[in-house]
């Protein structure tokens, strides 16, 4: 009876099929006539506008009033995640990119990085480490630059700053090396002329040291 009311024979479809958003495939409508974009998780649906069955979605009428459409949901009411237009089932592990791995859980997802975020400090054999993207590899790698080693000291001192923006990065200052009196604190930062990671120091004083007792009592 529903088919007789909504479906017309023969089918009349547009010459050019619709352009679907990412993650929404072309499927036949509920009448089996024309190609339409499948509805995704949480989108409205009805007899004609069907849900994406390849993602395990069905048109859920449980919360709809009489005479209205439903909402695309999982057939077993299982929670899922939608990331970049693609639906993942509860408990599924996926990688939106080669740099992160995610886990769909209870309608949300948690991600962990797959690339190491280690910091390489300058060393005598590698005074100017720099992290760069390597063609054909997902994670950036550290390389050593030695171009500034052969410059005269005066040339390095007057060289102009970088012409490209340098996003500031640095660790917090460490605790003072001395519990009282003058000491020094250290940190790793790229806030310098060449935008390179280096260990920086500054003087600090946690508190003044107490006065030492006199070696001999004063003679009255």
From TrEMBL:
Residues 79-145 form the VWFC domain. One of its GO terms (molecular function) is heparin binding. Its main location: secreted. One of its GO terms (biological process) is positive regulation of cell differentiation. Transmembrane segments: none annotated. Residues 1-75 form the IGFBP N-terminal domain. One of its GO terms (cellular component) is extracellular space. Keywords: Cell adhesion, Disulfide bond, Secreted, Signal. It is found in: Secreted. The keyword Signal applies. Coiled coil: none annotated. May play an important role in modulating bone turnover. Promotes the adhesion of osteoblast cells and inhibits the binding of fibrinogen to integrin receptors. In addition, inhibits osteocalcin production. Belongs to the CCN family. This is CCN family member 5.
């Amino acid at each position: 009876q529903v088919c007789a009311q909504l479906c017309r024979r023969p089918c009349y479809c547009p010459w050019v099929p619709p352009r679907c958003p990412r993650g929404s495939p072309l499927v036949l409508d509920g009448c089996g006539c024309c190609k339409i974009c499948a509805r995704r998780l949480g989108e409205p649906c009805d007899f004609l506008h069907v849900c994406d069955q390849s993602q395990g979605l069905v048109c859920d009428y449980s919360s709809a009033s009489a005479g209205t459409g439903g909402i695309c949901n999982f057939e077993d009411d299982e929670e899922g995640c939608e990331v970049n237009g693609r639906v993942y089932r509860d408990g599924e592990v996926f990688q939106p990119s080669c740099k992160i791995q995610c886990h769909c859980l209870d309608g949300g997802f948690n991600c962990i990085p797959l690339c190491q975020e280690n910091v390489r400090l300058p060393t005598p054999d590698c005074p100017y480490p720099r992290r760069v993207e390597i063609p054909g590899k997902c994670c950036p790698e550290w390389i050593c630059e030695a171009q500034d080693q052969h410059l005269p000291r005066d040339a390095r001192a007057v060289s102009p700053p970088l012409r490209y923006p340098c996003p500031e990065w640095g660790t917090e200052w460490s605790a003072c090396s001395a519990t009282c009196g003058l000491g020094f604190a250290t940190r790793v930062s790229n806030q310098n002329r060449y935008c390179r990671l280096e260990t920086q120091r500054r003087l600090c004083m946690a508190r003044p040291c107490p006065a030492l007792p006199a070696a001999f009592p004063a003679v009255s």
